[in-house]
Input
Amino acid sequence: MIHANDRLLRERIVRCLAPCPAVELVGDTDARCDTVAVVSVDTPDEAVKARLSAWGQAEASRSVLVTRSLGDADFLDLMGAGVRVVVRSHEVTAGRLVRAVTAAAAGHGFLSDDLVGRLLTLAASVRRTAAGWSTAGPVGCPSPCGQAEHM
Output
């Protein structure tokens, strides 16, 4: 099932997925519980995030977000809503989109390369903040000398 606010990108997604025998394109009324929703937006707004959150963890994990722009707060909101598959709109190719859809169908994650690094950085930042550590400086293990000072 494809939800896109850009007609040209929607057509590009259809052209990428239609020839794949492992993918069956369906409309909203034909959707089943195992349907993967490909949601294509320029930038996820509150309405898109609310829709993905409303789908719940299981349904949101079977969605593919195709987006041009994604801020850190939006990224964290979407991950919190259960979205595990994000493809940048400029990276949409038949192979990449089919891999993304099949990953979502299996409940696996699939992120554009730059987003993997951002997710790890954000996770480390959240961890440091939750632990009350300073957010400045590199993430790493404390030195043996630093450990000895605190004992």
Q: What stands out?
A: The chain has six helices and five strands. The radius of gyration is 19 Å. Confidence is low (pLDDT under 50) at residues 146-151. The first strand starts at residue 2 and ends at 4.
